[in-house]
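Homework help board

Subject: predicted structure for assignment chain

Our instructor gave us this sequence and asked us to write out the predicted structure in token form, then describe one feature. I got the tokens but I'm not sure how to describe them. Can anyone check?
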Amino acid sequence: MKFFNIDCHVSVIADIKKIFESLGHTVDSWSLSGHRWVFNLPQCNSPVINSSNWKNLDEKMVEDFYIAHKNELDKYDAFICAYPPCFLKLFEKFNKPIIVIAATRYDHPFTNDVTRLNWLEDSLRNNKNIIKIANNQFDQKYCEHFLGSKWEWIPSLCNYTGSQYKKNIDKFIVFSKFEIDVPKLKYIHQSQLGRYTWKDLYSYSGIIHFPYNVSTMSLFEQHTAGVPIFLPSMQYAIELIKNKTPIFSEIVFPNNLPERQANNFLNKEWLAYCDFYNGTVQTHQFNNINEIKPNEIQFKRDKEYVIEKWANKLQEIQ
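My token output:
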């Protein structure tokens, strides 16, 4: 099958592309991401949608997109939408299968526009051409909670880096969107690395995450590469949240909807669905960063499980 994709995130579609191509399919992708250089992805040169206006997606843009690209894109058998899922709207008029992958909250960027959110949710509930997938359990439950329909959970794989863990630097990398007060002799913040390669990153003792979200592609990249990964335990994470430490700062997108506020999800029930708390990504957990010691136990990914899940799903839509 021939698939087409437009995406604002480079890693999700890179993961899908590698899996699909290993199964004998092709995936063409136009990128709206500023990080497309990582995978040498072609820029989206559509006269209708671009990196500056995609959040304004509405019915007029959808109609203009179809008119501009209907002949060019009609050759594809199916479409893929990952980040953001709302791009499914661009492809509905082709009346072909659309694989929607919830890799983060599906409602972005419509959380503060109820009219467009209802427009999106109508398709997610009623369009029979949509194949509903979440690449993490949290988004599976989030989609099911708000949409009332079944979503299938197929974890990420991220074996596209071409690098494996090989320690030669006795320091830990701290992955965090905020500064952490740690001894400089033992830790280095990711912001100090500049532009680095995966090989460079995987040469340190391990990587310590203070998560900003429930699932990140970098976690899967590192896990698949055999990197020792360290995260706050669930109990410690709850304590950090209570102390206003800005972890899980992107658990939801900013919105004015009472039922979608961050506090509704910053609890043990919802955090238990995180990749690193439900065992999808196996990690070493800590209650104090200063107690972390080198631990080179390498967990193994069940790569065959992920590929088999996708193989079965693609067979259903052929």
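Reply (TA_rk): Your tokens look well-formed. For the description, you could write something like this. The mean pLDDT is 94. That's the kind of observation they're looking for.
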